Task: inverse folding
């Protein structure tokens, strides 16, 4: 169940799928996604996304550098707080150690049978207080047998997104194998860009009026 006695410290994000805030109770800081103010026409998809996030967090329970699920009651999802900044706020320029650790973190997720599916967004990569990577926002995560072909395909797309960030901030450290992987586009990626991406942009930018550059930070 979600924690009841808590006070809000800071609003972190509010969109059509819920309000996210930093909270505090007797046990310390945590993050809450609250669906109470979601418009009626979006309550079902908002609930589905939050439920999917809860499922993903259960899959990675106990793993370091990802949030831990504290409660989900169908309206509020509480997860542990990771102290740090989004990648776009604290870019790991030239930090090969960060990207090596990020790859190991991804491998740990994938061994649990979880593909994140939303790691193109810099906002979903954290640079924690000690400079190490963290991953948040599991609303689109897929869970399954880690040996299943579709999970392995999605896991490869997760890795490609990480390598894109490495190319941006640590290009000189890309290996020949990583460069080849960046050039190999899966049929899933091509299908998304032909079909899902235009729909996503229409819904988020025209209907929902999002302006956060798809989670990569405010537009200049």
Result:
């Amino acid at each position: 169940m979600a924690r009841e006695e808590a006070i809000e410290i800071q609003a972190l994000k509010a969109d059509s799928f819920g309000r996210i805030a930093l909270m505090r109770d007797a046990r310390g800081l945590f993050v809450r996604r609250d669906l109470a103010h979601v418009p009626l026409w979006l309550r079902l998809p908002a609930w589905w996304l939050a439920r999917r996030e809860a499922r993903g967090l259960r899959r990675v329970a106990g793993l370091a550098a990802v949030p831990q699920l504290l409660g989900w009651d169908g309206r509020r999802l509480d997860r542990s707080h990771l102290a740090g900044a989004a990648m776009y706020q604290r870019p790991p320029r030239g930090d090969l150690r960060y990207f090596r650790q990020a790859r190991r973190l991804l491998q740990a997720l994938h061994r649990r049978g979880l593909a994140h599916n939303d790691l193109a967004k810099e906002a979903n990569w954290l640079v924690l207080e000690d400079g190490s990577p963290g991953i948040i926002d599991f609303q689109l995560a897929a869970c399954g047998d880690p040996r299943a072909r579709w999970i392995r395909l999605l896991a490869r797309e997760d890795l490609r997104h990480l390598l894109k960030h490495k190319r941006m901030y640590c290009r000189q450290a890309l290996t020949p194998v990583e460069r080849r992987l960046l050039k190999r586009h899966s049929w899933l990626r091509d299908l998304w860009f032909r079909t899902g991406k235009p729909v996503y942009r229409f819904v988020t930018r025209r209907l929902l009026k999002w302006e956060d550059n798809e989670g990569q930070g405010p537009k200049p």
